[in-house]
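Appendix C reproduces, verbatim, an entry submitted by the partner laboratory led by Prof. M.T., so that reviewers can inspect both the input and the predicted structure.
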Amino acid sequence: MTSDKNISFGAAFPTFYRLIGPFKSGLAPEIVRNELWETIQRRGLAGNIFMGVIPMVSSLPLRSS
């Protein structure tokens, strides 16, 4: 069974995809260090589990079908 639905959970940090690869940007490491890492730290462990780990794990059955 295939699905044409796009399922997204959690915050999007597209700058992480600019660290390496074909769309690498020299500004990305500084953005990650200053802006994104502060957001991740501010959430704390519980916030990152609820905003990241749980949504990723709960989406596994949806993606694997």
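The chain has one domain: 14-64. Additional entries are available on request from the coordinating office.
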